[in-house]
Q: What sequence folds into this?
């Protein structure tokens, strides 16, 4: 199971079992989408290593 599929399933489960109705489950799904988007953006950016010249 892929990570996205896991979070979507978790959000649906939370939505179905939430005493507050559909609102919390939808918010959880949206929040998970935001977190996964941020992770993808971070992973797509190249890491730039700079030499520390303070000790040279």
A:
């Amino acid at each position: 199971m892929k990570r996205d599929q896991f979070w979507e399933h978790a959000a649906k489960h939370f939505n179905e079992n939430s005493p507050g109705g559909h609102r919390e489950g939808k918010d959880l799904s949206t929040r998970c989408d935001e977190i996964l988007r941020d992770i993808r953006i971070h992973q797509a950016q190249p890491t730039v290593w700079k030499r520390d010249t303070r000790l040279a």
